[in-house]
Predict the structure of Phox domain-containing protein.
Amino acid sequence: VKDLEVELETTRVNCRESMQQAVLTEKERFTQMQWDMEELRRKCLETEMKLKFEEDERLLAESTKASIIQEKQVLQQELDVAREQLKHLQKHHDEFEMKSKTDMKLLIKEVKSLRSSQLELKQQLSKLMEEKVDVERTLQKEKERMQLSHNSNAKLLHECTILQKRLQECSVNFLVEEEDKLNVDTSPSDALDLLATSDNRIGLLLAESDTLQFSYDKILKFHLAIIIYVCTILTALLPLSLLYGVSSTHRVVCMVSANLWDQAQLLAQDVENVVDALEGNTTTNDTETTNELRKMLADIFVDNASLRKQVNSVIRRALIANIKSEENEEDEIHLQKTFLSKFLET
């Protein structure tokens, strides 16, 4: 019995060890199976991913192929259009080439024509250069002439100013203005001497005015002649107012007034002609000199007007004096007749 128990116990222990060994083996197999399953799952995932990647590549290749086909069609259309344009450009090129050949022929003809006319143009150029030199020479002469004219006008203005001053010094100063009339403040003999002296001085000025080589000398001479004429009238009028009656003095006054009017008209006409000549021949350099000459002519007009006023005043004074003298003579005759009649009646 003990041996059996020992053997049973041994068998039991062996079975237990065998069971444990089997369990450990099974555990190892289960663990290995789990690892194998994990490996298979991993490989399966890798295979799926690879298949998916290949599918994506296939789809991408198909889409790329479709786009390439579409692009090929577009390029084919563009190629067709380019071929058409090339044909059109080739046609235009041929036309342009023909036109260029025609233009070249025309240009050759034009060049030949220009070469043939080059000599003529050179001759015209030389002629124009000669004309230019002549014009420049003429222009220089004209400038010199204008400068000479300007200098002559300035010299004339200076001489006219001197003559004007000397002419003013020849004025007689024996007439004194009182209210509306002029009175002689010297004796008749002194007045005649003054007028004679003024006559002589103005005659000298008239002789000196011959040195003025310009169109204005006629106006200055005429002005001096007017003054001499007025002085002559004054000289002749004083004795006439004493020697003749009213009727004779009236005739003298009419004659003097008519002559003065004619002389004034002639003077105005001459001045107008000179002013027209000034306006037609005046240049930029002569403007200032011309203005001064015009001012001098205006002063001459003023002097002549003053002289005419003096002559008219002297004539009026002579008339009044003669009228009063005649009235006094008539009163004396009337008184003599009255006294004689009373004497006869007695």
